[in-house]
Amino acid sequence: MNEISLDFLTILLPSYMFFYMAISMYARNKQNLVNRVASLLMLSLLFYFLGEYIKTALFPRYESLIVLFWNAPMLLLTISNLVHLSVLVAGKTSSKIRQFVLWIYLTPLLSLALMLLIFGPQHLYQPRVDGPSPLSPLMLGLAVFFVGSYILLSVGILLIAWLTTQLVKRKKMLIRLLAGLLSLFAWILIVTFLLSLAVITSSVSIALYFSGTLLWVVSLRRLITKYDFLPSYRDLFHTLFQSAPTAIFLLDLVGIVKEMNPRAKSLFGLLTEDMERIDVISSLSFYDDTSFKDRWNEFQTNETKNRQWEMKLNIQDQAQLDMIVSMENIEGAEEGMVILNMTDITSLKATERQLVESERKYRHLAYHDPLTGLLNRAAVQEHANVKIAAGEPFALILIDLDNFKTVNDTHGHLIGDDYLKHIADLLKLHARPGDLAGRIGGDEFVLLMPFDSAQMQVYEEAHSRLFPLSANPFRIHQKSIPVSFSAGVSLYADHASDLTGLLQKADEAMYEVKRSGKNAISVASNGVSHTK
Fold first, then answer.
1. Lowest mean pLDDT, pick from 9-18, 292-301, 377-386, 468-477
2. Strand pairing class (485-492; 520-525)
3. CA–CA distances in Å: residue 451 to residues 61, 88, 228, 439, 528
4. How many Cα atoms within 13 Å fall on the side-chain side of residue 217?
5. How many C-beta atoms surround the C-beta of residue 231 within 10 A?
6. Cβ atoms of 80 and 48 closer than 8 Å
7. Above 80 in pLDDT, residue 417?
8. Sorting pLDDT into bands at 50, 70 and 90, what band is 454?
9. pLDDT (tens digit, 9 = 90+) per residue, 68-82?
10. Phi and psi of 485, rounded to 5°?
């Protein structure tokens, strides 16, 4: 075998392998420190082998400088990477371990720099055509010490990890790593021993070192492929898919389920073999009762930017569930696929509905009379102020029940309350569009009535609304209690420009009815009340 063929087999071919290993490990998951350190280990081996090739084939006259200032640091960096990788594979990440790893890198490199400063390159390396090692015994001892001790240190770290782990797959991976490192260590010892005895020449020892390292790299590659101790996106995705707390469906473009995770199966209460019977998109609908299936094609053609919705899920023999549904198309698949992610928000929606209902009740209580359900004084004032601010004309009718104290004294306060409810029901029943009825005191009611003085007579409008009160007596225990009232009417903005003034005018008109015999309606007019 000529020298060119030997260089190709022992130097260039391993360099290609190391380059491939470095790129593939880094590209697989560049965010992971294990991948980065493994990639750096392969790159340092690559540069070491390239240094050997440059030294022997291209610039033999600079052999000593290349060995001492290039090959030696690359070799020391390689074994430091090996220890670092072993620490990471063993799962050691404490701050003390990180300091330990830092010194693992610095110690051999500082030792080499110190030797170069003390002895100089000419005393540490003597180039020779062939024969024993060109390295001085001190330099050779340094190399053997660090290579051997670092390999043994890596073996010890992996051995501890093997003894402490409980995972069968991890144990197998660690024992294979241990076997590979021990084999490499034994090979280096044997070759170094034969070289020291001059049984083999320097060039042969280089070829043997390279061959052994290449075999170790190939075995490491097979180990990575088989046990995959470096993170795999496929396995990681599968783990996340299986353990996700949300229901995940993998659908084709027509909505047929191809895969689903355990949460999705439990949601539908079905086993794996029942998966083909699930029609997810037909089970989903929007809150306006539009079926998700009816809009499926629209979403497929990306006609909508919104890819997340709140929906109802209806499963046979189960209560309706509220869901947040998100949809994503898988880009680059040979056949179109869609991921449907469903998060159960039933309890949250129930809480939301309770809060909305509670808010509605609180607002109702804040603006309504608790006995009759009519607007209370604050609500009447607010509505009146809105009308006044808008310049909207209206009539205010103040109603005071006649003889209500007699009803209370004769029949009791409970009957009196029912009597007030009867009045309120009549006002609500005969109210017209735009009317607002309220109770502002014990037996005082108010009615805000839209009014256009150019088109209608205020008395006739008020009488048409209040006449049903007199025509519908209150009945209790086969007894009939007639309804009698006195009412005063004021107009905005003829009589006053604010609610206080309107109430005052209506009150004056109402008391005029009281003084005139009760059970009538009086309309205020420029300070004079007109009663009918």
1. 9-18
2. parallel
3. 114, 86, 85, 21, 20
4. 26
5. 13
6. no
7. yes
8. low
9. 888 889 888 988 888
10. -145, 160
Residue 488 near residue 503 (C-beta atoms within 8 A): no
How many Å apart are CA 474 and CA 481, to the nearest integer? 5
Calculate the alpha carbon distances from 87 to 83, 160, 236 in Å.
Answer: 6, 10, 22
Q: What is the CA radius of gyration of the chain?
A: 47
Q: How far is CA 254 from the centre of its chain?
A: 28
Per-residue pLDDT for 37 more than 80? yes
Q: What pLDDT band is residue 450 in, cutting at 50, 70 and 90?
A: very high
Nearest to 19 by CA among 41, 34, 35: 41
CA 195 to chain centre: 62
DSSP for 187-253?
Answer: HHHHHHHHHHTTSS-HHHHHHHHHHHHHHHHHHHHHHHHHH--S--HHHHHHHHHHH-SSEEEEEET
Dist CA 39 CA 481 (whole Å): 99
Q: Is 434 left (phi over 0), alpha (psi -120 to 50) or beta?
A: left
Rounded to whole angstroms, how far apart are CA atoms 396 and 436? 10
The rounded distance, in Å, linking the Cα atoms of 178 and 175 is 5
The tokens for 92 are 């050691």
Spatial distance between the Cα atoms of 453 and 417, rounded to a whole number of angstroms: 36
Contact criterion met (CB below 8 Å) for 425 and 439: no
The predicted-structure confidence for 202-231, as pLDDT tens digits, reads as follows 667 767 777 777 777 777 666 765 655 544
- Summarize pLDDT for 335-361 with one digit per residue, the tens: 678 888 998 888 888 888 899 888 888
Question: Do the Cβ atoms of 493 and 460 come closer than 8 Å?
Answer: no
Looking at the whole model, is its pTM more than 0.85? no
Contact 217, 181 (CB under 8 A): no
Taking every pair of C-alpha atoms in the chain, what is the biggest distance, in angstroms? Answer: 141
Instruction: Tell which wins on pLDDT, 299 or 259.
Output: 259
Instruction: Please give the Cα distance from 453 to 6 (Å, whole number).
Output: 116
Q: Are 97 and 88 in contact (CB under 8 A)?
A: no
d(CA 108, CA 112): 6
Whether the per-residue pLDDT at 53 is higher than 50: the answer is yes
Compute the mean pLDDT over every residue in the chain, rounded to the nearest whole number.
81
